Amino acid sequence: MIQITTDNKPRYSGVNIDYEARAIAGEIIEKIKTKKDEALFEYIKRLDRYDLSEGLEITDFEGGDAIGNRLKDALVYAANRITKFSEMQLQKSWFDIDERGVVLGEKIAAVERVGIYVPGGKAVYTSTLLMNALPASVAGVKSIVVATPTIEGYIDPSLLFAAKIAGVSKIYRMGGAHAIAAMAYGTESVEPVDVITGPGNRFVAEAKRLIAGVVKIDSVAGPSEVLIYIDDEKYIDYAAIDVIAQAEHDAMAVASIVTIDRKLAEKLKQKITEKAGTVKRAEIVKKALEKSKIYLCKDVSAAIKLIDNVAPEHLELISETAWQLAYRVRNAGAIFVGKYSPAAIGDYVAGPNHTLPTGASSRFSSPLSTEIFLKRSSIISYNRDGFSEDAPFAIEIAKQEGLFNHADSIKERLENRVSNANKELT
Question: Is 266 part of a structural domain of the chain?
Fold first, then answer.
């Protein structure tokens, strides 16, 4: 069960490589690359336990209308919130003309095809589909496909409805490392994509790590995490249920607390222990809490330092001074400010993406956004006068690097410009 510690220097090594899963994923990827559909269909039948009797892909999402109106309304509401936030993130092309008339800038364009992995099987992760597909749709991606494992080919109607409102082109009934390989390299039945996003099991994670560079990926996700700062006993019930909510993700999840009050730390431990034995998914919760901590810090500055060292995926600040604390924190995937901002609401309807950096990678990474589905092309356009001014400096650097043909490429135009100018004078 969760323990109190005064060790304020936790050590995180990021999302560690799972070498066993990596080896298996690597073998699957190689077979998909060489045998394509033959290998893909074999893996779907053996690992997904689906005989392909209903076909590999779904392009008709009308079956999603079978869900109840309350769930429809909730999914549409969530989609609208996610879309609005994504639109505010959207980057645009820009150009600048300096005093010499030289044009510089960046052309922003969406990638053409995106593959989204949605975990499946026993659970239905409708929110994952929305959180990954909608930013791609807002970015202007033409083709958005989803890969998800199924039980005998069955796709839950809520996923179909989510796909319909999120701009998804098709759903592939396939999961695991073979789905990642098929989307990265393409087969006779699966067109290759440019970007792959979405969480998955250990084999999916290692497959994504292996194909990074063949396509762009969002991240290699580790277990989900929350760190909750609390400094007032009156919010103890909020903190306790939020810890348990995070712990129910899976047995590897980490749900920790940081406080500067020893009595509060003791009461939190007791409250969480009592509550963990009575909730649904109690066995998963208890296993996750065995790895979780209540960090006791000497003061607020020490607590902020610990938060930045942990660099949590989710950070909750349950305090009357939450906004002041938020401005001091440097490292967190998402910061939930105030007592009415649990991480759970961010998982569904707040609007910002719930696909967040884990394993302390918020030190250098950001949440999933429209940016991952966009690419930049630098624009450089010189006129004669601007080129003449900059050319001598470029020539000097090229010569220093020993790249004499680079220098000549510039000299050719410079000499030609002088020659043409002399002709104009005569």
Answer: yes
Single out the residue of 74, 150, 62, 169 nearest to residue 112, CA to CA.
169
Could you confirm whether 27 is annotated as catalytic?
no
DSSP strand pairing (254-259 vs 225-230): parallel
Which of 178, 249, 314, 354 is flagged as catalytic?
Answer: 314
Same domain, yes or no: 83 and 180: yes
Asked, for residue 181, whether it belongs to a domain, the answer is yes
Q: Give me the catalytic one of 206, 225, 248, 313.
A: 313
Distance of CA 11 to the CA centre of its chain: 23
Per-residue pLDDT reduced to its tens digit, 188-235: 999 999 999 999 999 999 999 999 999 999 999 888 999 999 999 999
**pLDDT tens digit string along 8-21?**
777 665 678 899 99
Contact 368, 135 (CB under 8 A): yes
Is 314 known to be catalytic?
yes
Helix (H) or strand (E) holding 211: helix 202-211
Amino acid at 76: V
In a domain, 102, yes or no: no
Question: Domain residues for 177?
Answer: 19-94+112-219
How far is 285 from 287, CA to CA, in rounded Å?
6
CATH number reported for the structural domain that contains residue 277 in this entry: 3.40.50.1980
